[in-house]
Design brief:
Layout (H helix, E strand, L loop, with lengths): L6 H20 L4 H10 L12 H12 L2 H22 L10 H9 L2 H5 L7 H20 L3 H17 L3 H10 L8 H23 L3 H9 L8 H13 L5 H10 L5 H20 L14 H13 L2 H26 L13 H12 L4 E4 L4 H9 L3 E4 L23 E5 L7 E4 L5 E7 L9 E4 L1 H5 L4 E7 L6 E2 L3 E8 L5 E7 L2 E2 L4 E2 L7 E6 L10 E8 L11 E2 L6
Parallel strand pairs: 1-2, 1-3
Antiparallel strand pairs: 3-5, 4-5, 6-7, 7-13, 8-12, 9-10, 9-14, 11-13, 14-15
Helix pairs in contact: 1-4, 2-3, 2-18, 3-4, 4-7, 5-16, 7-8, 8-10, 9-14, 13-15, 14-15, 17-18
């Protein structure tokens, strides 16, 4: 492997890097980036939605720069790093004659292009996937102690980036089952598990909250061919834009003539088949497929180097893709050029408008892990997302951010309010209202534990425990309780307030080892299509919280 890069390659690399740095500086954050910036304000071995790698990238960038560039700086390096690693993984002797083609191929892929500067979990996933494949190629030639350790560390880095990385590791192993008899391969696995142990400990200490949410708690809806499976195929086209016919032709024409190429093919087909099957259960987001772009660069580039006609079309259509993408990138900064009001438009404006009316007091956003961190990023003031039963849990549900607003005078922002003490315009020109609240008190971390055995037995007289993790006792007069009924897709269909009878306590004791126990009668008017129930708490007349786990009714309904 020659590490010396051609001068023309370095020129293109420098051009891409400068473009991404400039774009990073002038483009406002998208909501997910603001959310991950919020992660980085309190570094941890894990977060509600993702492993910690994306937060680490932002934290490192913030040591050097403030603002948007600080959030994206390391991603700009990883982008060109991915490009370099892909180049090094290509052995074809003709590759130096077609350097412009290589860059056109890489940056005509829509998400590879976008993630050249955006900081999202997929950014490190792409980089470490490329590095993992390069290391695996070296492993196939000569397995030894050093490359085994490197492979193990890279597997851990992949898993620290995004949970989807398990597919990369799995399909590479499936492409070469003999690895199961290779002592160096097992050493890599052991090294990877050891390096990943801090996150596994974090998951254990947090009741595997991330795994449970992604696999079991995430709401869904009834299957629709157009929005599920058809959308999946549209995403496969969207990944490559106008080059897609020749990209997929290259894939279909490539044969597994060696173990490395076989690994690339297994990875691409494996991910596609996995998410095709998933599309019959839920909508597959485009970025879930992005990892196939890394092996596809290697497959397609090697193929078109030997096929001049396809090379010509990839070159032409790739340039067309890049022109469109560059225009859209310009539109991210200059709103009139973009076909819609996008996430990078108007955030500073609405934040400044709200801050002028809020002053320095905290702002509590109802059901928005998107607006809360965006407001904190651009205003520099504290914010919080108060999540209720009509929304979903997120990082604000498990960290200590609630304490920032306890007992404070706050502004409460809700998109559902029709009037309020203040109003401002969102980026999409919607009028949003907020109200001032003094001595704000929420207890969103109260947990209810419904007796699952009693529910499954069909009993109408049920018990549940209330767990109070706070440092203060909470009077039961401050709390109301309800049975939440959910359909088979785990969407809320009804909220029924219930009368509860405590067994002994008149208050939920602070950090009590024994939870406060209640009994209640299951409401008779639970809807027939109810598949799950849970117990929700309303504290101080706030809207019902996300306090309990879903418990399945016997036979899936009442």
């Amino acid at each position: 492997m020659r590490l010396k890069l051609p001068r023309l390659f370095l020129y293109f690399l420098a051009l891409v890097f400068i473009l991404n740095i400039v774009q990073s500086y002038f483009t406002e954050l998208i909501f997910d980036e603001a959310y991950y910036w919020y992660y980085a304000q309190n570094m941890s071995w894990g977060y509600f939605d993702h492993p910690p790698m994306v937060a680490l990238l932002i934290k490192l960038g913030n040591f050097l720069f403030n603002g948007e560039l600080g959030v994206r700086f390391v991603s700009c390096f990883l982008s060109i790093g991915t490009c370099v690693v892909l180049w090094l993984a290509i052995d074809n002797k003709d590759k130096r004659q077609h350097i412009p083609l290589f860059f056109i191929l890489v940056y005509s892929m829509t998400l590879l292009h976008a993630y050249g500067f955006l900081t999202l979990p997929d950014t490190p996933l792409l980089f470490f996937t490329a590095l993992f494949l390069l290391a695996y190629k070296r492993f196939l030639k000569k397995p030894d102690l050093l490359i085994s350790i490197l492979l193990g560390l890279l597997m851990a880095a992949l898993m620290y980036s995004k949970y989807h990385a398990v597919l990369v590791i799995l399909f590479v192993i499936l492409s070469n089952i003999k690895l199961l008899k290779n002592k160096y391969a097992w050493l890599s696995v052991i090294i990877g598990i050891l390096a990943y142990t801090p996150h596994l400990i974090w998951l254990f200490e947090n009741d595997f909250v991330s795994i449970r949410y992604h696999l079991f708690e995430r709401p869904n809806r009834a299957y629709e061919f157009e929005d599920f499976t058809l959308a999946f195929f549209i995403n496969l086209v969207a990944l490559f834009g106008f080059t897609f016919p020749w990209v997929y032709k290259s894939l279909f024409k490539t044969k597994p003539h060696d173990l490395f190429t076989k690994a690339l093919l297994y990875l691409v087909y494996g991910v596609i088949v996995f998410f095709f099957i998933s599309s019959f259960n839920r909508r597959v987001q485009t970025q879930w497929l992005i990892v196939v772009c890394v092996p596809m660069v290697l497959i397609v580039y090697n193929y078109i180097l030997s096929n001049p006609q396809d090379r010509k079309w990839i070159f032409r259509m790739g340039i067309l893709n890049i022109v469109i993408l560059l225009f859209l990138r310009l539109g991210l900064v200059f709103e009139p050029l973009f076909p819609i009001v996008y996430e990078t438009h108007g955030n500073k404006n609405w934040v400044n408008a709200l801050r002028e009316k809020a002053g320095d007091i905290p702002v509590v956003f109802e059901n928005s892990y998107r607006e809360a961190p965006m407001y904190a990023f651009y205003s520099g003031n504290p914010s919080y997302s108060l999540n209720n039963i009509r929304y979903r849990r997120n990082q604000y549900s498990i960290d200590g951010s609630e304490s920032v607003v306890q007992g404070k005078r706050i502004i409460y922002i809700s998109k559902f309010k029709k009037e309020g003490d203040i109003e401002y315009q969102s980026a999409k020109a919607d009028t949003i209202f907020g109200v001032f609240l003094d001595n704000f008190q929420s207890f969103r971390n109260l947990k209810t534990h419904l007796n699952e055995i009693e529910v499954m037995s069909g009993s109408k007289e049920l018990n549940f425990d209330l767990e109070n993790p706070y440092d203060i006792d909470i009077g039961l007069s401050q709390l109301d309780f309800a049975v939440i009924s959910l359909n088979k897709y785990k969407n809320v269909i009804d909220i029924i307030k219930i009368d509860v009878l405590p067994f002994d306590e008149k208050k939920a004791k602070a950090k009590a080892h024994a939870n406060t126990r209640f009994k209640f009668t299951l409401p008779k008017d639970i809807k027939a299509d109810t598949h799950y129930i849970k117990i929700s708490v309303s504290e101080n007349k706030l809207y019902w919280g996300i306090n309990g786990e879903n418990v399945k009714l016997p036979n899936g309904s009442n």
